[in-house]
Amino acid sequence: MRRHRQMQLYAGALLAVALLLGGPILRDNIPTEPWPLIALFVLTLVLSNLAVELPFAVSLSFPFAPIFAGILQAGPAGGALLGVASAVSFQKVREHKPPVLMLVNVCQLFIAGLLAGWVHVSISEGLDGRAGQGLSSLGLGFVAPGFAVAAFFLLNLLLVGVALSLKTGIGWAD
């Protein structure tokens, strides 16, 4: 019962963070072209339903490629929207996964996608002014996406690790 209450508090905290960060970041980063994002959304939904079940009732899904494409194409909005699209699968609904776990998954992928997109946009804008100062276009093409991938990976790892620790009682480092 204590773990369930901790998970509820964690879900509430993640939802609050998602709302607090999402509003200001998304307001300044609205995508202008929706069709590529819609196509990536559908692809993400399909790939998230091809998940492989792992121990501790965790699943590994394959939608990172379209999420990353969405980050490159539409920045924070693409990362957040496609993160949410990857969070809930039909299998989880059929298995009656607890709503609190699905909310945690939605929020953590929203936050990871949003912030990875923000990192990409921020670094890209910062590097655009330095293009003539010795940075090659090849270097510019790898720096911002590389940091965006690292941000998504680290945030996802951290937020999932906390959720697994709360759910199982196993220490976060383990």
In words, what does this structure look like?
With 174 residues, the protein is mainly alpha-helical. 76% of the residues lie in helices and 3% in strands. It contains six helices and two strands. The protein has helices at 2-27, 34-48, 64-87, 90-94, 99-128, 137-168, and strands at 52-54, 58-60. A two-stranded antiparallel ribbon has the order 1-2. It is globular. The model has no long low-confidence stretch (mean pLDDT 85).
Number of separate helices? 6
Give the spatial strand order of the biggest sheet. 1-2
Write the H/E string, N to C. HHEEHHHH
Give the tally of β-strands. 2
Q: Which assembly state applies to the chains in this document?
A: single chain
Radius of gyration based on Cα positions:
17 Å
Mean of all residue-level pLDDT scores: 85
Which regions have little confidence, pLDDT < 50, spanning 5+ residues? none
Overall shape = globular
Strand fraction equals under 5%
Largest sheet: 2 strands, antiparallel
Structural class label: mainly alpha
Distance between the termini: 22 Å
How helical, in percent, are the residues? over 70%
What is this structure's SSE topology?
Elements: H1 2-27, H2 34-48, E1 52-54, E2 58-60, H3 64-87, H4 90-94, H5 99-128, H6 137-168
Antiparallel strand pairs: 1-2
